[in-house]
Prior knowledge:
Elements: E1 4-13, E2 16-26, E3 31-35, H1 42-49, E4 57-62, E5 75-78, H2 90-100, H3 105-114, H4 130-141, E6 148-152, H5 160-175, E7 179-184, H6 187-193, E8 196-201, E9 204-210, H7 211-214, E10 220-221, E11 224-225, H8 229-237, E12 242-246, E13 249-254
Parallel strand pairs: 3-7, 3-8, 5-6, 6-7
Antiparallel strand pairs: 1-2, 1-4, 8-9, 10-13, 11-13, 12-13
Helix pairs in contact: 2-3, 4-5
Amino acid sequence: MPVLSLQNISKRYGAVQALTNVSFDVPAGCVFGVLGPNGSGKTTLLGIVTDVLKADQGDFTLLDQPASARQRQQIGTLLETPNFYHYLSGYQNLKIAATIKQRGADDIERVLKIAGLTARQHSKFKTYSLGMKQRLAIASALLGDPQVLILDEPTNGLDPEGIAEVRALIRQVAQSGKTIIMASHLLDEVEKVCTHVAILRKGNLLLSGPVSEVISRNDFVEIGSRNNQALREVITRHPEYVSVVEAGVVLQVVF
Ligand code: ADP
């Protein structure tokens, strides 16, 4: 039984068609990447799945339940950077989140341990590195021991060290048996962290399935420096297909 099953989800904002008939299943226990360039509909999709937004059409079941019956505590979310208090410690910040979720000290200690923050739990949040701040945010999402963790671009804005820490934490949480659904605009990240992927382009589902099957297909390839001769030719012929370019490096070419 899939953890999440989407059937023909569509969403429009005024004149912008953000999602068109998107359907895919997320198997239990996988790390599922929702991959696509900025503006492809990833955040909208995660918003619908977490009941922050309502789809115009289509339906979905999460943990085999329709929206009306869904148990909120079974789903942990990190959709935007939480408003942590800079002058409070990591522990105190989690205490506030735990109070809202009606969780006790044992749960706070559990998630601090998972996030590798036990030794620094009493340090002020403002002294944390970028990676530690994001690990605290993931720890907060894990309060209540949800079965499913939903993360929107969890490594965005981090330094290389923070990116490595957060990716390691995601893999560790997955190994503990939770299903993780995460948005990313980086093919490289999906290849390194995810077992399954759905690729969105302009609100349409391009492909979905196990990363090993989907990414090996020719209709989605990486990548390299713009100085690469073959890549330069592709870009010249099909500029519309180059979906993500960062710091002169082409990260995605979608055919
Ligand atoms: P992604 O997360 O892949 O960057 P989004 O889901 O944020 O994509 O956006 C999909 C499309 O919907 C984009 O064209 C974006 O500009 C548009 N969009 C997103 N949110 C809104 C909104 N609140 N109002 C109008 N357009 C929006």
